[in-house]
Specification:
Layout lengths: L16 E7 L3 H10 L4 E2 L2 E5 L6 E6 L9 E5 L2 E2 L3 H13 L4 E8 L1 H10 L5 E6 L2 E2 L5 E2 L5 H6 L3
Parallel strand pairs: 1-2, 1-3, 1-5, 5-7, 6-7, 7-8
Antiparallel strand pairs: 3-4, 9-10
Length: about 150
């Protein structure tokens, strides 16, 4: 490979990678991945958390009929209860995607535990593990609602 300064030896990523941001907060992470891996495919799944039950509700799914990727990176800035990511992984595995990785910025231990229990084969990559969930199922100290913060919809 030729860099701006000289030639260098490198390895190429040969796997076909798909990025699946969980709408809407996951969109904030997708751009950074596209900059690093410009040939990725992007698919979207939309889920929101019911504020009474704290369980995920799927409102958008435009996956193609079959996966045309080797590995999927599911991205969402926060892993709180784990409900949304478990639901997304259920959808993706039923769709036929076998190799999946989850990337998040911060998480609560409760969400990590739920994810590991439901999908022990999916690696989890986090920037930080916060303390706990509060009575409203928000990460403490956390960031509040990541989607609201990104899109100014407090």
């Amino acid at each position: 490979m030729k860099t701006p300064l000289s030639d260098c030896r490198c390895e190429l990523i040969w796997e076909r990678i798909g990025v699946i941001p969980i709408l809407r907060a996951g969109l904030g992470m997708a751009d950074a991945i596209i900059q690093m891996l410009p040939k990725v495919t992007i698919w979207h799944l939309g889920l929101y958390r019911d504020h009474t039950t704290h369980e995920p509700i799927t409102y958008y799914n435009k996956l193609p009929e079959q996966p045309a990727i080797d590995v999927g990176f599911v991205v969402d800035p926060m892993l709180a209860t784990g409900g949304s990511i478990v639901a997304v992984l259920d959808i993706l595995k039923k769709w036929g995607l076998q190799k999946i990785k989850f990337l998040a910025l911060i998480a609560a231990p409760e969400g990590v535990e739920r994810l590991q229990k439901a999908h022990p084969d999916v690696p989890i990559y986090l920037a930080a593990l916060d303390s706990h969930l509060n009575e409203n199922k928000y990460i403490v100290p956390g960031l509040g609602d990541a989607g609201d913060r990104q899109f100014g919809t407090y």
